[in-house]
Amino acid sequence: MTTTRSVDDALTVLFRGGVVAIPTETVYGLAADADSEAAVRRVYAIKGRPLDHPVIVHVSSVAAMRAWGDLTPLAEKLAKAFCPGPITLVVPRKPRAESWITGGQDTVGLRIPAHPLTLELLRRFEGGLAAPSANRFGAVSPTTSEHVAHELGTDVDLVLDGGPCEIGLESTIVDCTGDVAHVLRPGGVSVEAIEEAIDAEVVVGARDTAMRAPGLLASHYAPRARVEIIASPNDAKVAEKSRVFDASDAERGEVAIARELYATLRASDEAGLDVLYVVLPEERGLGRAIADRLRRAAAPRLSGTKA
Ligand code: TXA
Ligand code: MG
After folding, report:
1. From CA 238, how far away is CA 109, in angstroms rounded?
2. Cβ of residue 170 lying under 6 Å from some atom of ligand 1
3. 297 C-alpha vs ligand 2 centroid, how far in Å?
4. For the chain, what is the mean pLDDT?
5. Which among 90, 165, 178, 184 has the fewest CB atoms less than 10 Å away?
6. 266 and 139 Cβ atoms separated by less than 8 Å
7. Alpha helices in 48-129 (DSSP H)
8. pLDDT tens digits, one per residue of 264-282
9. Predicted TM-score (pTM) above 0.90
10. How far apart are CA 254 and CA 234, in angstroms?
11. Is 279 in contact with 247 (CB distance < 8 Å)?
């Protein structure tokens, strides 16, 4: 596995049907040609991800989105307000979004990432790139090229290094199939910003319980260390080896906390911690997404696995 800053090299690998880790403003993605079943299957295999979990298609423009899905009036509005940016629009799929992308559902998730290298890559690739976060299933998402190299090693053909991710949390996933916006996963675009853009209230949660939305898995984004939620930094027990991550610290601000979050979870494993104590932020703005990830990191794990 090589790390490069060359978009040319990344294109060569993708055109050959290979798998490239790509930088985005949210987290690094594990990308493959969305039109190639074999290439996308390899992404699933590398992640160890169940095949019925849909994957987001990344494209470079709103026009390109229309090749993969039907943009509803709600999706058009959100695309205009936030794309490129940390938002994923779930819309009715077009035939090009095959079952290896959608996990057999009739919708597709579409996103235009706001990272100059990846935008150039997407423009020149012309097709779409299927890209889940570049981590093993259930583990912490990578926010630097080093995280990817450390976790996936030679399983990935190439890592395109675009520096540390600016936001550090995944995109906000919005179900745009109906008239009302449903946030399936809080992320880089806040619920408040969406409500302002569409001048309507947003529902946090799935419209249809049959939808394979993120959140069905309680334990996710989990380091090996146990994560325990406490109400105040003073509540940390004197455990063998522990640290406190105070995500409620208003002085540091939510943007900085979001950016540090996953690196902190990873560092807790490097330091060999038994417990990472976390204080949740207020549930507004980016705080909603930060709290969501910390709750999932703290959720009970299936015996010995991270589900
Ligand atoms: O910021 C992001 O969104 C990153 C970067 C790489 O773009 N990608 C990412 O992908 O987080 P992933 O696969 O790790 O998480 C996407 C989530 C999954 O839980 C998947 O189930 C859900 O989005 N998803 C994808 N398509 C969907 C659809 N059509 N309907 C409902 N949920 C969908
Ligand atoms: Mg993920």
Report:
1. 44
2. yes
3. 13
4. 94
5. 178
6. no
7. 62-65, 73-82, 99-102, 116-125
8. 999 999 999 999 999 999 9
9. yes
10. 21
11. yes
Does ligand 1 lie within 6 Å of residue 109's CB atom? Answer: yes
> Could you read off the pLDDT of 290-305 as tens digits, one per residue?
999 999 999 987 644 4
Q: Which two tokens stand for residue 96?
A: 């090009």
Q: Length of the chain, please?
A: 307
Tell me if 223 sits within 8 A of 140, measured CB to CB: yes
User: Which residue among 43, 56, 170 has the greatest number of ligand 1 atoms within 8 angstroms of its CB, and so is best to mutate?
Assistant: 56
Q: Which of 55, 148, 261 to mutate to test ligand 1, by most ligand atoms within 8 A of the CB atom?
A: 55
Q: State which residues have CB under 5 angstroms from ligand 2, the bound ion.
A: 133
CA 93 to chain CA centroid, nearest Å: 20
Q: Report d(CA 8, CA 167) in Å as an integer.
A: 26
- Using pLDDT thresholds of 50, 70 and 90, give the confidence band for residue 209: low
Give residue 132 CA to ligand 1 midpoint distance, Å.
Answer: 6
**Ligand 1 contact, 297 CB (< 6 A):** no
Instruction: Calculate the CA 240 to chain-centre distance.
Output: 32
3-state DSSP call for residue 273? coil
CA atoms within 13 A on the CB side of 26: 29
Taking only the tens place, the pLDDT of each residue in 218-264 is 677 888 999 999 999 999 998 789 999 999 998 999 999 999 999 99
Residue of 288, 280, 267, 112 whose CA lies nearest to 191: 288
Q: Give the neighbor-by-neighbor strand order of the sheet with 275-279.
A: 226-229, 275-279, 242-246
Nearest to 186 by CA among 129, 122, 254: 254
**What three-state secondary structure class fits 3?**
strand
Q: Residue 92 and residue 107: Cα distance in Å, rounded?
A: 4
